[in-house]
Design goal:
alpha/beta; single chain; Gyrase A, domain 2; seven-stranded mixed sheet; flat; Rossmann fold; 3 domains; Four Helix Bundle (Hemerythrin (Met), subunit A); 16% strand; six-stranded mixed sheet
């Protein structure tokens, strides 16, 4: 990590054309640099902290680069805890590059990824868990993702973990006192200690069970379209994507591999997988495609079984239903535009036409309900894989301590599990060693954050 005593600059908005883009400065020379390149046309921003002031950006002795708004945040009441300046300029890439060049010539260096957030952490403005929640929120692409990930900014889970850490420390103190002063303490409080430990195990198990919600919110649900050959899976795949992505022909076995594409349904990201039509075949390539498709369906979060409604439901479809890993999210009778054969079919089957779009809205609603059921509700979610792994370590330590104590093997052995749980909780909350904290966590952030 570079020297953190200097002044850093970076664009705080995504690159590309736009009406307004923001260049951010942080450090001891932020105001000096502002005075050197910003010519106010009214109030002076360095005399009016936290107020937007109109002016022009120009190099000393040269022409105006852009009209801009400047705002100054005085230390320590700023994002990073240092003096911070933000310049709102017009969105032309050349303007942003020009401003950054002026700042660089004045002595600012370009910020490393996540360095603004890292300085905020070092100055007590942001905890590691809050910073990771911010970073996860920056990557959110849908409304559902943003709503689920924004909860980490409120600090609820962090407060819960800090309370558990205090509980672990309290239990350790009591058990270690029993080891050092058995005559004074005895085992009078052991039953109560075990009950407290069981309660904590339950809390940690709940958090770990909810961990898949993080993957859903960050990456999306994975849904496989499976069915016999010529059931119209690729046509349905294209219809749900609203574009021609998969090759569609009337010839059986056209799809040979698994195609994946992302789509947004009900405010959540969904990864659709088009798989090869299932049938017995002597073609080794097609056979491999069928095998891959069924494997993809087995590891996906769910599957949609698609069959030719004109042909009807039969033994082939029934056999494929039995090969799926659990009940499908939906069963779809496709080709409704050609007529659906009357007769037996599973209850709740959706009749759709990938060609005309009939029934697709109802199917999309069903997929949205399925995702909504697994989405986190009423509580915050963990915002990084690092946090999940740390909590798994804390749970393992608490379980080890509980088993040891219940088996009567002594508080000295049980304390070993509590030590493991304490270290894992501390790592989750604080990020671990400050020496390599930037490399492990903040370096993964975007530049300007």
């Amino acid at each position: 990590m570079r020297d953190l005593s200097g002044t850093i600059a970076a664009e705080a908005t995504p690159p590309g054309r736009g009406s307004v883009r923001i260049v951010r400065l942080s450090g001891p020379q932020a105001v000096v640099l502002l005075k050197s390149l910003f010519v106010p046309q009214g109030p002076l921003p360095w005399e009016r902290p936290r107020c937007l002031c109109l002016g022009a950006v120009r190099a000393p002795g040269e022409g105006i680069l852009d009209r801009a708004l400047a705002v100054y945040f005085r230390s320590p009441d700023s994002l990073t805890g240092e003096d911070v300046v933000e310049l709102q300029v017009h969105g032309a890439p050349g303007v942003v590059r020009g401003v950054l060049d002026l700042l660089g010539a004045g002595g600012a260096r370009m910020a490393l990824p996540g360095e603004f957030s890292y300085r905020a952490f070092l100055n007590g403005k942001l905890s590691v868990m809050e910073a990771e929640a911010v970073n996860a929120l920056v990557d959110a692409e849908t409304e559902g993702q943003a709503a689920g990930l924004a909860g980490g900014l409120h600090g609820g889970i962090e407060g819960e973990l800090r309370a558990m850490l205090e509980e672990v420390l309290d239990l350790r103190a009591g058990w270690e006192a029993g080891i050092d002063f058995p005559e004074d303490v005895g085992d009078m409080g052991l039953a109560g200690s075990l009950e407290r430990l069981r309660s904590m195990v339950g809390q940690l198990e709940g958090l770990v069970r909810a961990a898949p919600a993080l993957r859903y919110l960050r990456e999306g649900w994975r849904l496989a379209l499976v069915g016999p050959v010529n059931s119209g899976k690729s046509s349905l795949f294209n219809a749900l994507l609203k574009r021609e992505r998969a090759l569609v022909t009337p010839h059986p076995g056209t799809t040979r591999d698994v195609l994946e594409e992302s789509v947004q349904i009900g405010g959540y990201p969904l990864i659709l997988m088009d798989t090869a039509g299932v049938r017995a075949t002597s073609d080794p390539v097609e056979s491999l495609g069928v095998e891959r498709g069924l494997k993809a369906a087995s590891v996906a979060d769910g599957a949609v079984l698609v069959f030719d409604g004109r042909k009807g439901w039969g033994d082939e479809e029934e056999g494929l239903l039995g090969r799926l890993n659990g009940a499908p999210v939906a069963i779809v009778a496709n080709k409704a535009d050609l007529g659906i054969q009357a007769g037996h079919m599973p209850a709740g089957t959706f009749s759709v036409s990938a060609v005309t779009g009939a029934g697709l809205e109802r199917l999309s609603e069903r997929l949205g309900v399925w995702m909504e059921a697994a989405a986190p509700k009423g509580r915050e979610v963990l915002s990084s894989d690092r946090q999940v792994e740390a909590l798994r370590g804390a749970l393992a330590g608490c379980l080890a301590a509980l088993r040891t104590a219940e088996e009567g093997r002594g508080e000295d052995l049980a304390c070993g599990g509590l030590v493991e749980a304490q270290r894992a909780l501390e790592a989750c909350i604080t990020g671990g060693s400050v020496e390599d904290l930037y490399d492990r966590i903040f370096s993964r952030f975007c530049i300007g954050k």
